[in-house]
Amino acid sequence: MPLTLADCIARDGGNASLRGLRERFAPGAPDTLYFDANSIGPMPADAPARMQAVLQQGWAEARRRGWNELDWLEQPAKLGAAIAPVIGAQAEDVRVADSTSINQYKLLRFALALQAPRRVIVVQRDVFPSNRYAAEGIAQAGGAELRFLDDIAALPAALAPGDVAVVALSHVDYRDSTRLDMASANAQVRAAGALSLWDLSHSAGAVAIALRGTDSDLAVGCGYKYLCGGPGAPAFLYVHPRHAEGAWPAVCGWMGHADTFAFEPDYRPAPGPDRFLVGTPPVLAQAAFAAAAAVWREVDPQALDAQHRSLGDTLIQLLDEQCAGFGIELASPREHARRGGHVALRFAHAAPLAQALVHHGVVVSARKPEALRFAPHPLTATHEQLWTAVARLRDLLQREAWRDPRYQQASV
């Protein structure tokens, strides 16, 4: 039987362990449905108050003393500990700092140092551009050789020569949401004597991840998507403890020194992942992230994954039932275990259709060449909202509203 609105409302009554967390987030604009968690997650309701406290108590009043009286320097470790269960890591394995791209560069260089004299980086050819750019920059400087991977099925062949230092993979494709089998890939990489480096930007905070459980070596991820750290939030990095002290970091800064305020003339790397800290932390950005971290400390990762599965499966069923015959195709895998944080559709005019949806109160995103992405956040989106969003989508498709010149302008 086709899904009804009543069915969707009934599904919102499940997953009791997450009930109440939706109220911990700001609702957004009236009559607007947000399905762009893969671009920027919802704002925790107390984020402004936390930032205001830093501005008043920290900056206006304490000033320099804020570094001693408040916990600004401890935040990279505290925030890392808060999100560690969400990515299947231990608290001591994760630090929040810098950006995803910078962390990608740092850990690629670190992996090369650990694996010398091996110097080949295997990187996906069609991956989020910054990941490839970081590897290309290292190769351009003479620090590595690149070997491109066109399909995960070709990973054994890429590893076969025995010269690979590190394999850099995106857990979830940012366009079609295909999720790789982390355990399988790690086993192949490990058997070849190489290290794995995962980008979790489109999976952390949405689907189940088991970095320790799958014996991953290294990982990075974005703080402002599903993790809700705020616009431009610091990213995170993960280092398995067996590697944490195996080499110097690629970028040596005073915050990564073994004794930060000793101001010694020579660098000594801090123990464990603290060595990957570099410069003064962004205190205001950390305050916003801390609002999200307070929520993540209460989230059961398995309940989160189950809720995300229910939302994704419901969305796909509604699209099948209500939008067939309008030129839209499912681009993401149907199976939840093979799908990441968002559901991607293939449509020849995805970009203007996305703009039309935004204009009609359904915030989604598009990516070239023709991907339309719905990314419900498992802590805030509802099945009822999905019903409304698909009804609006169907109306726009019926009217071919995407042809309107207003929607032809490029958008982020």
TrEMBL record:
<keyword id="KW-0378">Hydrolase</keyword>
<dbReference type="GO" id="GO:0008483">
    <property type="term" value="F:transaminase activity"/>
</dbReference>
<dbReference type="InterPro" id="IPR015422">
    <property type="entry name" value="PyrdxlP-dep_Trfase_small"/>
</dbReference>
<dbReference type="GO" id="GO:0005737">
    <property type="term" value="C:cytoplasm"/>
</dbReference>
<keyword id="KW-0662">Pyridine nucleotide biosynthesis</keyword>
<dbReference type="InterPro" id="IPR015421">
    <property type="entry name" value="PyrdxlP-dep_Trfase_major"/>
</dbReference>
<comment type="pathway">
    <text>Amino-acid degradation; L-kynurenine degradation; L-alanine and anthranilate from L-kynurenine: step 1/1.</text>
</comment>
<dbReference type="InterPro" id="IPR010111">
    <property type="entry name" value="Kynureninase"/>
</dbReference>
<comment type="function">
    <text>Catalyzes the cleavage of L-kynurenine (L-Kyn) and L-3-hydroxykynurenine (L-3OHKyn) into anthranilic acid (AA) and 3-hydroxyanthranilic acid (3-OHAA), respectively.</text>
</comment>
<keyword id="KW-0032">Aminotransferase</keyword>
<comment type="pathway">
    <text>Cofactor biosynthesis; NAD(+) biosynthesis; quinolinate from L-kynurenine: step 2/3.</text>
</comment>
<comment type="similarity">
    <text>Belongs to the kynureninase family.</text>
</comment>
<keyword id="KW-0808">Transferase</keyword>
<keyword id="KW-0663">Pyridoxal phosphate</keyword>
<dbReference type="GO" id="GO:0030170">
    <property type="term" value="F:pyridoxal phosphate binding"/>
</dbReference>
<dbReference type="Pfam" id="PF22580">
    <property type="entry name" value="KYNU_C"/>
</dbReference>
<dbReference type="GO" id="GO:0043420">
    <property type="term" value="P:anthranilate metabolic process"/>
</dbReference>
<dbReference type="GO" id="GO:0030429">
    <property type="term" value="F:kynureninase activity"/>
</dbReference>
<dbReference type="GO" id="GO:0009435">
    <property type="term" value="P:NAD+ biosynthetic process"/>
</dbReference>
<protein>
    <recommendedName>
        <fullName>Kynureninase</fullName>
        <ecNumber>3.7.1.3</ecNumber>
    </recommendedName>
</protein>
<comment type="subunit">
    <text>Homodimer.</text>
</comment>
<dbReference type="InterPro" id="IPR015424">
    <property type="entry name" value="PyrdxlP-dep_Trfase"/>
</dbReference>
<dbReference type="GO" id="GO:0019441">
    <property type="term" value="P:L-tryptophan catabolic process to kynurenine"/>
</dbReference>
<dbReference type="GO" id="GO:0097053">
    <property type="term" value="P:L-kynurenine catabolic process"/>
</dbReference>
